[in-house]
């Protein structure tokens, strides 16, 4: 490395150390084919905009608990070598880095992270359901809609759509949890179907006593055949159990009968555990918490009100918040008043305030705005799942701020004597339910504004507090096979690049990986492969082979640099299921086999097998991209001229 180049990398390294909060804030570091990955003790003190302005940085983002800085193939190796030396960190693999990230979390944080990981994949569906529910609620209260046949019909379809999404949410959670913990996602779907089977009594109807529940006796133990509608925690637990059983049986069952026997045993054992252990424990725990909250509001005065509103939204995580409907109905029947409805309503709006508090601290981040704004809108209609699972649980401190704000709102409900004359709607639509004799509409609004403001301020303040908290290493770059490449030949010649794999070819900006889709590492295409064989897209020299065999660099005779990246986050598989057929310095012809990987194994591990094919350095040539619905290694997908 030349002295000038080394000085450049040294400056980059020092800039990065300063911008991430200093050496003391760095917990671990590693790199993949294109990105420097850093685990930090405190992500909130990172200057993201400053990092984007650092020389040679092509992009930066946070994935899970890792700060990922994009440099591109080859360059990241050299930067990492200097950076790792400066921070005096031991050489870490990606699995070591993940372990380090998990070790810095306490048990509660691990649970919260697991919840956020599970729900982030299904968040688009939850958002859609929340907004549809809000729209349906508003339209349903409009006389013009009720009196118009067409508008009434459209609103009915909207209502059915939103109800269906929330109704089958346990299925989606079981699927996502099974996928997150390494099982085959389809088995999570199977368990979700069992939970919601029509052969089981509806859980809500069973709670209200309006349906007969069949009871089986197996080995002397009673088993109630009740469904798990709304059973989010049960779905989460059974998804994890199913994943672990799937992994276990895949290892233990002989290969000759594995395809048939392994899923059979996984499903059977999971179903038995669902009805005998997981379901009753999950349901009993959540039901006990719910009953305790109601008791507090009836016996502890203002303290009980504050505690109820402070923790009520945590019951939403269990999915058993719907049981409050039966309690509310009984309250109305006994007293004609419902004090639980406004308590739940201020708990909801406080979580919305927490979303705004988090947004105010991260307003310049486009992805944060894209998630926070629709989540807050859904809160106004009384739906908090997007806010809870998409933001507050995921980032932890907004959840605390929202709960504290809810407690303030609950105290205000007590002091202002706010009650409701019905149940079923909250927040903005819930104004119509406020009892004029029990504090009235103005008191209802004052309590909600107080809860919203408190949720915002607590979250903002906790965020500031959190922000204030506070021999040479052998380089991993040496392990990456690289090779010097000859001077360009015919640099002005037009070059045709063919698909490196069979499958559907789409523009790179439609890739499932945001870093590649941003074109920060170059323009190109993404391929949804039908198999895992990767071929040379043109004649050239292999310039880089990553140790985990998931990424290969090729230098064309013109000097243009290509990068082929097999799968998304497959570096975490550390070479499992990947085979390479070339090494750095090899001369290849179009169509030569480069690598092969097991796409089914990649999907089973919870990753995407999508292949990224980029022109990392076009040497000043114009690039044209030609997508294709069906491509093979003879299909032109790009042209440099």
From TrEMBL:
<dbReference type="InterPro" id="IPR018113">
    <property type="entry name" value="PTrfase_EIIB_Cys"/>
</dbReference>
<feature type="transmembrane region" description="Helical">
    <location>
        <begin position="441"/>
        <end position="464"/>
    </location>
</feature>
<feature type="domain" description="PTS EIIB type-1">
    <location>
        <begin position="10"/>
        <end position="93"/>
    </location>
</feature>
<feature type="domain" description="PTS EIIC type-1">
    <location>
        <begin position="113"/>
        <end position="478"/>
    </location>
</feature>
<feature type="transmembrane region" description="Helical">
    <location>
        <begin position="259"/>
        <end position="279"/>
    </location>
</feature>
<dbReference type="GO" id="GO:0090589">
    <property type="term" value="F:protein-phosphocysteine-trehalose phosphotransferase system transporter activity"/>
</dbReference>
<keyword id="KW-0812">Transmembrane</keyword>
<feature type="transmembrane region" description="Helical">
    <location>
        <begin position="157"/>
        <end position="178"/>
    </location>
</feature>
<feature type="domain" description="PTS EIIA type-1">
    <location>
        <begin position="513"/>
        <end position="617"/>
    </location>
</feature>
<keyword id="KW-0472">Membrane</keyword>
<dbReference type="GO" id="GO:0009401">
    <property type="term" value="P:phosphoenolpyruvate-dependent sugar phosphotransferase system"/>
</dbReference>
<dbReference type="InterPro" id="IPR050558">
    <property type="entry name" value="PTS_Sugar-Specific_Components"/>
</dbReference>
<feature type="transmembrane region" description="Helical">
    <location>
        <begin position="226"/>
        <end position="247"/>
    </location>
</feature>
<dbReference type="InterPro" id="IPR011055">
    <property type="entry name" value="Dup_hybrid_motif"/>
</dbReference>
<feature type="transmembrane region" description="Helical">
    <location>
        <begin position="314"/>
        <end position="333"/>
    </location>
</feature>
<feature type="transmembrane region" description="Helical">
    <location>
        <begin position="371"/>
        <end position="391"/>
    </location>
</feature>
<keyword id="KW-1133">Transmembrane helix</keyword>
<feature type="transmembrane region" description="Helical">
    <location>
        <begin position="114"/>
        <end position="137"/>
    </location>
</feature>
<keyword id="KW-0808">Transferase</keyword>
<dbReference type="InterPro" id="IPR001127">
    <property type="entry name" value="PTS_EIIA_1_perm"/>
</dbReference>
<dbReference type="InterPro" id="IPR001996">
    <property type="entry name" value="PTS_IIB_1"/>
</dbReference>
<dbReference type="Pfam" id="PF00358">
    <property type="entry name" value="PTS_EIIA_1"/>
</dbReference>
<dbReference type="Pfam" id="PF00367">
    <property type="entry name" value="PTS_EIIB"/>
</dbReference>
<feature type="transmembrane region" description="Helical">
    <location>
        <begin position="185"/>
        <end position="206"/>
    </location>
</feature>
<keyword id="KW-1003">Cell membrane</keyword>
<dbReference type="GO" id="GO:0016301">
    <property type="term" value="F:kinase activity"/>
</dbReference>
<feature type="active site" description="Phosphocysteine intermediate; for EIIB activity">
    <location>
        <position position="32"/>
    </location>
</feature>
<dbReference type="GO" id="GO:0008982">
    <property type="term" value="F:protein-N(PI)-phosphohistidine-sugar phosphotransferase activity"/>
</dbReference>
<keyword id="KW-0762">Sugar transport</keyword>
<keyword id="KW-0598">Phosphotransferase system</keyword>
<dbReference type="InterPro" id="IPR003352">
    <property type="entry name" value="PTS_EIIC"/>
</dbReference>
<dbReference type="InterPro" id="IPR013013">
    <property type="entry name" value="PTS_EIIC_1"/>
</dbReference>
<dbReference type="GO" id="GO:0015771">
    <property type="term" value="P:trehalose transport"/>
</dbReference>
<dbReference type="GO" id="GO:0005886">
    <property type="term" value="C:plasma membrane"/>
</dbReference>
<feature type="transmembrane region" description="Helical">
    <location>
        <begin position="339"/>
        <end position="359"/>
    </location>
</feature>
<keyword id="KW-0813">Transport</keyword>
<protein>
    <submittedName>
        <fullName>Glucose PTS transporter subunit IIA</fullName>
    </submittedName>
</protein>
<keyword id="KW-0418">Kinase</keyword>
<dbReference type="InterPro" id="IPR036878">
    <property type="entry name" value="Glu_permease_IIB"/>
</dbReference>
<dbReference type="Pfam" id="PF02378">
    <property type="entry name" value="PTS_EIIC"/>
</dbReference>
